[in-house]
What we know:
22% of the residues lie in helices and 20% in strands. The protein is built from one helix and four strands; from the N terminus they run αββββ.
Amino acid sequence: MFATQSDAGKGTAHGVRPASYWKWSVALLMLFLVPLLFAQNAAKVTAVDPTSGKVNDSVTVTGENLGKDSVVAVFLSDAQDDFKATLVDQVITRF
């Protein structure tokens, strides 16, 4: 759609009104911000020590939000398979 001289000053751009811009802007903003709000309490692994091991070895997983209310299972994997680990202890440390 092309604007004509009579359309000048009416606030239209290619047939879209300015109110629609605000609606789309708010919708896009919400689309990108809502996941950030829910991701605040997501479990995050920052370290695994040792980085490799054999069956029945103990491994320490360090990170954020790894308490019992956030993590119910831990899986270790190689390039092909996932192995469910036995959780021995979950300790919350506050700094």
